[in-house]
Design brief:
This protein is of the alpha/beta class and 360 residues long. It has one domain (27-282, 292-335): 3-Layer(aba) Sandwich (Rossmann fold). The protein has 11 helices and 9 strands. The protein has a 7-stranded parallel β-sheet with strand order 1-8-9-5-4-2-3, sandwiched between helices. Strands 6-7 form a two-stranded antiparallel sheet.
Length: 360
Amino acid sequence: MSPSTQSPPPSPDRAGTGPAADLILDIEDPLPPCTTDELLDLYRGMLRIRRIEELAAKAYTRRLILGFCHLYIGQESVAVGAAAATADDYWIASYREHGHALAKGVTPRKVMAELFGRATGASHGQGGSMHIFDRSVDFMGGYGIVGGHVPLANGIAWAARARGEDRVCVCFFGDGAANQGAFFEALCLAALYKLPVVFICENNWYAMGTPLDRQSALTDMSLRARGVGMVREQLEGWDVEHVRQRVAAARQHAVTGRGPVLLEIITYRYRGHSMSDPAKYRPKEEVEQHKERHDPIDLAARRLRTRHGVTQEALDAVRAEVEEEAADAWRFAEESPFPDPATLYDYVYAPTGTPVGEED
């Protein structure tokens, strides 16, 4: 191409509107405060995740769950708060997705059966811990490759917009994935095409066993948005009501055609990276301090008692309901059959002639 036919460089009067601009989410909390019943539902949802995950750990030690198993204990407020703001939207997550699946509406029975590798599981026993999928609630799956699912969120959002749906794709990933190449590529395209995506970085401060400040010179992961001209916000994730409000604000921005949002939600996991990780790289005092000060379930229970007048007996009743629900999921999974080996290749390819968009 000759110099005369090349496109001119951007004009100086566009300075400050490009990717170097720091665009902060400017929408105030859009939802009314939670009623007592709504906060009780959020409390119940977090308890459900906590108890299912505790039983998953127990099942893993008994070899009822094989392969990898990444628990969500400690981070429950992120998924539950986000679900309260995006109940009708698409979700996609990484391998630590048991909690997301439960928050999105996948039943405890289907989650536990999938962890056990049984035919009654959400993915018919063929996905296991890292690949829970349930189209009936628009949970578009967990994915085992770090950051590899982030570009898929763009495709889901593009499809939603092409269909004229007023919906977003909510994409969950960890701080380690925010240093992966596919993550940057996905953010670049999402911002370029103003796709309706809410990217949620759940920063639990450790990528496997590596602390954040040893894996990245930048420890505010929300600042990754500046490189592509995307709106961003960083927030603490212990308060499930606060998460609900800020995810709702991000959704409102994205669904109205203003482009995607990157939310960095500070959280903390109490267990190791996976069940095979004893987490000896973390001081015991650090974990205990987080449990004492920031446990999302305890914070919600305290608020229900002090601000909503809910009795401890009522909270205990909710806990008992969740305990029975989790025990029922275990029984269901253990009694369910394993998949027929003849079905091994059933989901490798779509049936021949299946129209695009046709559901099962």
